[in-house]
Fold:
Amino acid sequence: MTSSAARADDARRAKMAASGKRPEHRGPPELFYDEAEARKYTHNSRMIDIQSQMSERAVELLGLPEGRPCFLLDVGCGSGLSGDYISEEGHCWVGMDISPAMLDVAIEREVEGDLMLTDMGQGIPFRPGTFDGCISISAVQWLCNADKKTHSPPKRLYRFFSTLYTALARGARAVLQLYPENSQQLELITSQAMKAGFTGGMVVDYPNSAKAKKFFLCLFAGPSAALPKGLGTECSNEEPAQAKFVCERIRFKNAKGQSAKKSRDWVLEKKERRRRQGKEVRADTRYTGRKRRPHF
Structure:
């Protein structure tokens, strides 16, 4: 790319960064997280507290064995705040991020982990079975945007999840905290994770709180395990706000063993599954699952 073309491309991205409210709508991450934005993660006490709390929760959901140091991957490590907590727990880690400015701050802070400048949408560049676990804080939703003509969100998500699955030891977990924009984006992310071989589901902490509500995609590389319970759901009589998925389809059959697809029970189960995924579904009525009369 010529210098004039490069300047034009930077101007286009800067214009993108000026519009939109969500960070991922304001430009590519390598431009949004510039030097000024990166400094906030060392000077803004509120930002530091939130990042530390989410990192602590993510490591907790990993379910690591007690008394044994583990080797962890931090995807979207930024300035190394999440890595600090990993180090405090006695584990070793490698952090990867697409923003040079964020990694520069991490180097200045002299974090204990190794750092790598790379785009997670291009895959995890490590040998099979390298890591005992993986965490990510507010990074995965960036893959749902196409910042370049060559970007395909489903392909980039699948590339990320498939290479992450390979890089994890069998039985290891990946806990990815994210801010989904809507139910469709959540479905896109979880479907690509399932396609890559993961099992697991979404753990939602404090589902009834507008401010404290947090989404953690808890993935299992290997045999499926019990999904952890979300915080703030212990005192609720409702079903925990969790969406679980496995790498298989459960087919409905009637008493004679024949497929009962599109039956009333099948329709009700499908609607309930969509409700657990956070999608808007019409209320159940006595007409739910009934065959419609043909219109002439």
Summary: Residues 140 and 178 are 6 Å apart (CA to CA).
